[in-house]
Structure formats: C-alpha cells, structure tokens
Specification:
Structural class: alpha/beta
Order of helices and strands: HEHEHEHEHEHEEHEHHEHH
Strand content: 5-15%
CATH class of the largest domain: Alpha Beta
Distance between the termini: 29 Å
Length: about 325
C-alpha cells in the first residue's frame, strides 16, 4: 500500500488505501467508543482543526478522534480569528507552520482550499469538507458502516437519493463505493443532478420506488437550502412525497437493507421521524463510526506501521 501523504480527495486513494483505513478503524472502534480512556499513539503530536465553515458533527468528531489518540488539539475557526480581519489563506498557513503543528484538518466553503493549503505546508492536510468538492472522511465512515452491516461491498447496490448537485458527500461517496466494487444508483430531482453526472459511472433512476426492492443501502442526502439560490423543486412537501423515505417506502426494502444519512437531517423532508428512529436506520451509528474512521486517518497520516491500539490505557 502506498503511504498516505494527505487526504484531500477520495480520487487520490486506491482500493488498498481505502481498505487500510477501514481495517485500522475496525481496530480503533473500541477506543473510539470509550468515554475517558485513550491510547498514547499520537502523544506529542499537534493537530490543528482549521474550520473556516460552520460545523458541529465533523469538528467535534475530529476533536475527539485526535484526543482519543492523545494528540494535542488546536481548534481554529474563522470567527474571531485573523481570517475574519482579512488575513490571507497563505498567511494563515504560515502562522500554523510557525506554531509547529503536525497535521491540519481543514474545512472550508471554498472548493480547493485543502489542496491550496497543502502547497504552503509540509505537514499532512486532511480535508474535512471543501465547498461542493469533497468530503472524504464522511465517505470513508459511511462505507465503514456499510461494511460492518453487509460485509464486503463488491456487488452491493447503494441507492443515493436527493440533492446530488450541492453535495460534496455524494461525490466522495460515489468514488469510495466504486473503488470497493459497489453498484450505485442516483435518484434525484432532475434539477439537482450535476451536468457531469454522465461521467460518474453510475446509474440514474427517475423513480425511487422502482429501485428500493433491489437496494442494500438507501443513502439520503440532506437538502442543502443554504447553497440554493433559486427554487430547485416546488415545495418541501412535494420533495418529501416524491423523494423522501417514509414507512411505506421502508417496507419496499429487503429485510437486510439499511437507511443512512450524513446529517443533519431535515425530518419530514428527506426522511420521516418514524424511519429515522427505526432500527433500520444506522444514522447514530455513523456518528460513532466517524470518530473511529477519523482516528484511523490521523493514525495513518501521522504514525508508523505499529499496531494502532498499542499501549491502550
């Protein structure tokens, strides 16, 4: 396996690297789920969480992941920092370099920001979401969750539903699933499909009900109203009727199939409350798995080949 230098895009990974992250996360999952204990794997390392866009789940997940590995954490946000005063991205990077950080986790509303940062810094850069471009650790935690429920993903059918156009998660998700040999079908309002979707190597379906009986996973994307500057569908009620998953649609799925969502959910739009709270939905489990997967990414970027759980406390 080629060593990980940065994690900016799923496109930069090969199948062996994806499997290395998943296998390492499996080792680390018992530690990720602890409330107090940690392992000394990254003791002495400094991880900077550079969040230039609002986030709750991802920021806290990375914070916990680093601390579970005993790294020191610097949390840096745009609000109240020199960025809000007009400091350039380059000067922010040089400031981080001067502080001696060992890894930068960056989230930005601008596509390409993590790649730009990697040109200024020699330390590993980990993309926590950039614009409409990529969200690699979300895709990795999702395929990790799928694999824990379904086993190997080769030949499995994953139906991705909703706002594909504005979703960095969808792009990363499709790439990760294809690397592992899964079959992917997109179901979306035509207005929320990107023009480039024909090059993605996936199927596109017009009706959700038609593909559910053959699905192993239904992955519901959040309707990203904050990124929409015009009307892409008539009303939220209409969206829920045509593309949302309710109890009737849940019953169309095979018994083993699971329902997923990257969060935060718009209950009553992409998913009804009874489905979100059902035992078929693994949305809360995705959050716990996200800590383990982000621990694995930090470990693979910052440490050697020793057992990831060595010296557990």
């Amino acid at each position: 396996m080629r060593p990980l230098r940065d994690l900016i895009s799923i496109e930069d990974l090969d199948p062996s690297q994806v499997l290395a992250v998943l296998d390492t996360a499996e080792q680390l999952l018992p530690i990720a789920d602890r409330r107090r204990n940690s392992v000394p794997t990254l003791r002495g390392k400094v991880v900077c969480n550079l969040f230039l866009e609002d986030s709750t789940r991802t920021r806290i997940s990375f914070d916990l992941a680093a601390k579970r590995l005993s790294a020191e954490v610097i949390n840096f946000s745009a609000k109240g920092s020199s960025v809000s005063k007009g400091e350039s991205f380059k000067d922010t990077a040089l400031t981080l370099d001067a502080m001696g950080v060992d890894c930068v986790v960056v989230r930005s509303g601008s596509s390409g920001a993590p790649l730009q940062l990697s040109r200024y810094l020699e330390v590993p850069i980990l993309n926590a979401g950039d614009g409409w471009h990529q969200h690699p650790t979300q895709a990795l935690l999702d395929v990790f969750t799928m694999r824990r429920h379904l086993g190997e993903l080769a030949g499995r059918h994953v139906v991705v539903v909703g706002d594909v156009l504005h979703s960095r998660v969808a792009r990363s998700e499709v790439q990760a699933l294809k690397l592992l040999g899964a079959r992917v079908t997109l179901v979306s309002p035509p207005t929320l499909l990107p023009p480039s979707v024909a090059s993605w190597g996936v199927e596109v379906a017009g009706e959700l009900d038609a593909v559910l009986p053959d699905a192993d996973v239904v992955y519901l994307l959040r309707v990203q109203r904050e990124r929409m500057h015009r009307a892409f569908f008539p009303t939220s009620r209409e969206y829920a009727r045509v593309w949302g998953v309710d109890e009737r649609r849940l019953a169309l799925l095979p018994e083993h199939a699971i329902v997923m969502h990257p969060g935060p959910m718009n209950r009553g739009v992409e998913i009804t409350a009874d489905v979100a709270d059902s035992d078929r939905a693994v949305i809360v489990e995705q959050v716990t798995n996200g800590i383990a997967v982000r621990m694995a990414c930090l470990y693979l970027l910052l440490s050697g080949d020793a057992d990831a759980t060595e010296g557990s406390a």
